[in-house]
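Record 1 of the preview.
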Amino acid sequence: MAKLWWHQIDVAEPERSYSALLGVVQLQSILLLPTFIYYGVRIENQLKRSPGVVGYRVRAEFAQMRFLHLSVWTDHAAIRSFIHERPHERAMKTLYGRLGRTEFRYWEISGSEVPLSFESELERLK
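->
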C-alpha cells in the first residue's frame, strides 16, 4: 500500500468551517491503470495550484486496485470549480463508465480537525 503524507497547501483556521471530501475508486481492470495514473498525476498537479484547497492526501492499494483521496477545501464551491476544470474534467469524460465502484462523500469539518486521516474518515463510507 502506498500511503502519502498530508500535503498542507493553506493554513486551516481552528474555528472556521471547511468542506471535506473523501473519494474511493476501485478499478475494474489492471488495463486501466496506466490511464488512471496518467490522469492522477495531472490532477494532483492541478490540486496543488487550485484556489480553495487547504490540504489533501492520497492512498493507493495496488493489490486491491483501490485508490483513495481525502481533501479539505474552503467551501463546496471550490470543490465544484476544481472538478470542472482541466485536467480533472477531461479525466472524468475519458474514464466515465470505465471505472469500477466509485464513491464520494462530502461533509463539513472545523479547521481544528485538519489534517484528516484515512483511518477515521473511511468509517464515513460504512
